[in-house]
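sorry for the late reply, my laptop died twice this morning and i had to redo everyting from scratch. anyway the thing you sent over, i finally got around to it. pasting the sequence first so we're on the same page, its 143 residues, then the predicted structure underneath. double check i copied it right bc i was rushing
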Amino acid sequence: MYPMNEELWGIYAKNNSGLCLQFDITKDKTFFHNVLPIHYVPEIFEREYNSISKPNHIIDLFYKKTKAWSYEKELRLLKDQIGRMPFKREALQSIIIGDQAENDFLEQIIETVKQHYPSVKVFQTIPPVKITDFKCKLIYGKI
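ok and here's the structure:
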């Protein structure tokens, strides 16, 4: 929920060298129909999943994490198939690339956006990456 979460950039974006995709989920309600927030609980207990007798178990299994992860403020989207899942192009609003990304990676992202997502804006973070101090610069697109 917070694209400038410095811990997430370190863990999930290869120490600020990866990217963050920002979507407007209202522009593709079918694709994002079951996006839900993670619930952070003191402890996760072992349990067996039974989709027939307890269909809500899926939420208990996949939408809970321990409080140690609460800094993530995660939203999660589960799909019932494997592989690529197309979404409406207009749902992708912007891409934020980490300040440690290599030039080749930046160029690949910008070229992909030009070819397939011409209305998407591409930004790059400006360090330090912090929730309280959102800093990034536009490197492709129009504001």
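The radius of gyration is 17 Å.
thats about all i looked at so far, will dig more tmrw
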